[in-house]
Amino acid sequence: xxYVQAQGDSFIRHIFDAEPTQWDADNYCYARRxxxxxxxxxxxxxxxIVTPPYHDPATQSLDEGPALLIDGVWTQNYVVADLSADxxxxxxxxxxxxxxxxxxxxxxxxxxxxxPDAPVDAAxxxxxRQALRDVTNQANPFAIVWPESPxx
Length: 152
Hints:
The chain has 152 residues and is an alpha+beta fold. The chain has 3 helices and 7 strands. The relative contact order is 0.11.
């Protein structure tokens, strides 16, 4: 459950589920699951969770913004912002690094299939392994289509 603290129709802060239920010295509430009585006593409101808007992860950031009061319901809000050219390049580079790391892990995990006495369809596994090597030829590191491993 997610909550917001608000005064009237003015958003104050997000309140996230965490253990235990308490207010800390900075007046933040960490609530696992508030009862209706606690919601009333703490002056918080349940927050409606919504699907994030589309954004291009290579060129934009997506962050949670202040909740919005829509038709009497506090609703999650997202802020999409353009990245600078340097930020975008760094994010794309980091994503390619993560793709290569995953690819390498899958290659290592399937090395045994290329042993001469492995009880598998060696040609199918060789094709799969080549497809793994080729994932870095895809244009968008945020939309990688991974090959399926052979069933044998």
